[in-house]
Amino acid sequence: MAHWLVKSEPDAFSWDQQVANRTEAWTGVRNFTARNNLRAMRRGDRAFFYHSNTGKEIVGIVEVVREAYPDPTAEGGDWSCVDMRAVGPMPRPVTLAALKADPRFAELALIRLSRLSVVPVSDAHWALICALGQWTG
Asked: What topology does CATH give the domain 3-132?
């Protein structure tokens, strides 16, 4: 199983909306690298749900339940989306500031590639972030 981090601006699509909808298509990605990351996701992979711009923190965990397919919101181009299911909230949200302050996260894609909305997370970083957020699921 691979691990990821997906970003959403909470005023556009929030963790609470993800939970209410249970399963949601992760649409609207219009960056080729992020699109390729969506295409690399497999059913059962898990991702941190990150609130960008407002909050700037990891607030939950989602799971891929449908692998990449054409993004129905795209008016043109070769864009993809995946379906994500809410797994659970992060008991203690993990802030971007906390990650930046910890040298163990210097190579975390969220920090190195801060503009990408879909990034891979190494197994080691996944375990560390889960520990910081008190996630045991």
From this structure: ph1033 like fold (3.10.590)
Q: In what order do the strands lie in the sheet with 80-95?
A: 23-26, 80-95, 57-70, 46-51, 3-8, 118-121
Residue 14 vs residues 19, 67, 99, 107, 136: alpha-carbon distances, Å: 9, 21, 21, 26, 22
Note the helical H segments in 9-122: 15-21, 32-40, 96-101, 109-112
pLDDT band at residue 134 under the 50/70/90 scheme:
very high
Q: What's this model's pTM, rounded to 2 decimal places?
A: 0.96
* Residue % of the chain over a pLDDT of 70: 100
